[in-house]
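During the first year of the project, the team set up a workflow for recording each protein of interest as an amino acid sequence followed immediately by a discrete structure-token representation. This format lets reviewers and collaborators read both layers of information side by side without switching files. As required by the reporting guidelines, we include two representative entries from the current panel. The first entry is reproduced here exactly as it appears in our internal archive.
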Amino acid sequence: VGYQGGEYNPVGRFWQLRSSDAHAWVEVWLDGAWQRVDPTAAVSPGRLALGAEQTLPALRTESGMAAALPPQWLRRARQQWFAANFVWQQWVVGYDAERQQGLFRWLGLGERVDAASVLRALAAGMALAMMPLLLWWRRRPAEEPLPAGWEALRRRLEKRGVEAPRAQGPLERLKAARGLPRDDFNRLKALVDEYIELRYRLTAADGAREKRWLRRALRWK
């Protein structure tokens, strides 16, 4: 007894053998040797290459919905499903120590691998995976000092109880902050005056001065 026929799965590159492909034959002692006697090739030649399911319609078990689909689409969908199930059985259900060592050899980790080696390999893989993100982070456009400092001032004024909507201009914001203590208001006025000069009056950008203004704005409380 054994199997005869089957269907090749081009997705997973393996042969699918079902219970319907089970086959039995006889061997007879003839002229001093055992010889196979199997009339299948004569009775149903397609059974040898296509299997019982393709040659005997009575064995097909498609539902009404599946039968309505084009045969090629149906076979492709079934092949995808069998390939996924084959990978699951091979790498999850049947994953043993021998297969693990084979994976380690394929990764170049050697024959004997301990937990520390696995952790190092995982750390290296994570570092390689994070490299594109790190490169993007370093190459992203830097935030301009003036907008960053102005937004920081707005948030700190709101924490002090001063209404500071984003659409508010510098002079309006300074007017809204008149209720602050004198020292705090004077330091804020100096920041706002310099912001107006840097933002609206200078014809050429002064990056160093803008960065100094940003540091002072971040220190204001």
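The second entry, processed by the same pipeline in the following quarter, appears below.
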Amino acid sequence: MDVKEREPATLLRLTDGNTVLNDHADDAGLCAVCGSAWPCDTTLLAGDLR
């Protein structure tokens, strides 16, 4: 499916998921945002939104 054909809600979920994945990055084995072991739960959930 082409991105242009996706519903706005799907695009919003893609954007939010990608933003979280960019922010919650691996920082020497810990999440750069929340400090949990990486990948943190937020990163795992965001991966499901992509």
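For the second entry, the following points were noted during internal review. The chain has a mean pLDDT of 76. The beta strands are 26-27, 30-31. Both points are flagged for discussion at the upcoming steering committee meeting.
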